[in-house]
Amino acid sequence: MPNDRLRSGLLKKGLTPASLAGKLAVDPKTVERWITQGRNPYPRHRHTIAALLDESESYLWPDALPTQRAVQVSQSEVVHIYPRRGAVPTDLWQQLLVKATRQVGVLVYGGLFLPEFNHRWVPTLREKALAGTQVDLLFGDPDGKNITERGADEDIGAAMPSKILNALAFYRELRGLDNVGIYYHDTILYNSIYRFDDEMLVNAHLYGTPAAYAPVLHLRRIGGGELFDGYVASFTQVLGKKRAVWPERSTANG
Asked: Which CATH superfamily does the domain covering 75-244 fall into?
């Protein structure tokens, strides 16, 4: 059957079967068969195509890897596991941000620790955005029901909305910049996600425990893996429920 995911991925990136064939040094008819007949490319081509389309191999070719092999690849995406957020090396956050060139994504309720303890965090985000990197920052809605519940769970009462507003004060210099989106969300925060291109820090959440004392996974995307892309999908779903922190208001003329 046709591979509509591959077809759609090419369209999104403005690629044709012929242009993809040129990048891979294969016959255009071979690419057409991958699309129209659903044939699986060789592994070396799958890796390259997935990188070009910014998609996972498991999404483009779900049946290409045996289940056990897919599990092994996903395990290889785990660079390190930290027992708590405080155990993550302080300079790792900045190192990952500095290396990012395409996408930076942050999904938190407050995340106050980042700009509060790293004076280069927000200026570096600004530099990245000005250089063309897409920056999406998602914060908990101070008026949202899930923020109220989280405050009760952690036994800090109404302190959570204040933490969010304090964090946002650090990001005001990013307001109005191209390539920067700063949003509220009112979803259950199963994990805080910090994405830097193809690397990611995922802060797990434990009921009744502040995020600083919960484990962190350092992930690096590998073609054919499922962990990294699973968290990307989660981030994308929350992004679809966003509302702007500082909505643009047009002023009528006259």
From this structure: Endonuclease Chain A (3.30.870.10)
pTM: 0.74
pLDDT digits (tens, 9 = 90+) for 73-84: 667 899 999 999
Range(s) within the chain of domains with CATH label 1.10.260.40: 4-64
Give the DSSP per-residue string, the chain.
---HHHHHHHHHTT--HHHHHHHHTS-HHHHHHHHHS-PPPPHHHHHHHHHHHT--HHHH-TTSS-HHHHHHHHHHTEEEEESSGGGS-HHHHHHHHHH-SSEEEEE-S--THHHHH-TTHHHHHHHHHHTT-EEEEEEE-TTSHHHHHHHHHTT-TTHHHHHHHHHHHHTGGGTT-TTEEEEEE-S--SEEEEEETTEEEEEE--TTS-GGGS-EEEEE--TT-SHHHHHHHHHHHHHTT-EESS---PPPP-
